[in-house]
Amino acid sequence: MKDATALPQSLLVLGGTSEIALATARRLIARRTRTVWLAGRPSPALQNAAGSLRALGADVHTVAFDALDPESHEAVLGKVFADGPVDMVLLAFGILGDQAHDERDPVRAVRVAQTNYTGAVSAGLVAGRALQSQGHGSLVVLSSTAAERARRADFIYGSSKAGLDVFAQGLGDALHGTGVHVMVVRPGTVRTGHPAAGRRTPLASTPEAVATAIELGLRRRSETVWVPGALRPLMTALRHAPRAVYRWLTA
């Protein structure tokens, strides 16, 4: 499917203040999307994000959603799906954490894992089941190249993304043939407004570049998208590098 009908008319964003998610929403609104739900913790940032999308002509709603409260996910997301069909769910919430501090504070490390993995398992299952019940739709999951292999610099974050990545692949297999399309997106370093994301890194991208790749992946019904595409062969090589060599390369 490469025509415009592969793009959603309605979009639910889990992680409504994510810069990648908002860049994706802007791009999809410019193409076909007319209704957007931004789900996240109530905050001025969430309201500002909704206002910026309304200015583009979309009908935008905010939804109180907490990744760390999985018991609420079914009720919260159920209300969105009860309002009408949702063509696409973008699972975009997550935290980088602070590796140096988190190593010394297991409670903080666990919060990274609970947000990026446990919360995503809950929300992903609820969203996947709702999409299956309506018989169509795409679930787009923001993973990371950090999921491919542990690095000393960010192994807590990377391990949480590795769990998310495997979960999303398995969910895609479970939903295959149901009319639901699951797409895993693996960006490298993305230059956003977050201080930790400002480092100059080879093959770094921007939220807009990730949004462009997501649109192309939707049109092609891709199951995995790398951003930029050159990361795919690079990460394949690094994944199979001897551990001592990989440790030296990523030190």
UniProtKB/TrEMBL annotation:
Any single Pfam family the record assigns to this protein: adh_short
What does the sequence similarity comment in the record state about its family? Belongs to the short-chain dehydrogenases/reductases (SDR) family.
PROSITE patterns listed in its UniProt record: ADH_SHORT
Q: Which domain of life is it from?
A: Bacteria
Keywords carried by this UniProt record: Oxidoreductase
Top EC class per UniProt? Answer: oxidoreductase
- Give the EC number(s) under which this enzyme is classified: 1.1.1.333
Q: Does the keyword Protein biosynthesis apply?
A: no
Q: What is this protein called?
A: Decaprenylphospho-beta-D-erythro-pentofuranosid-2-ulose 2-reductase
Q: A GO molecular-function term, please?
A: oxidoreductase activity
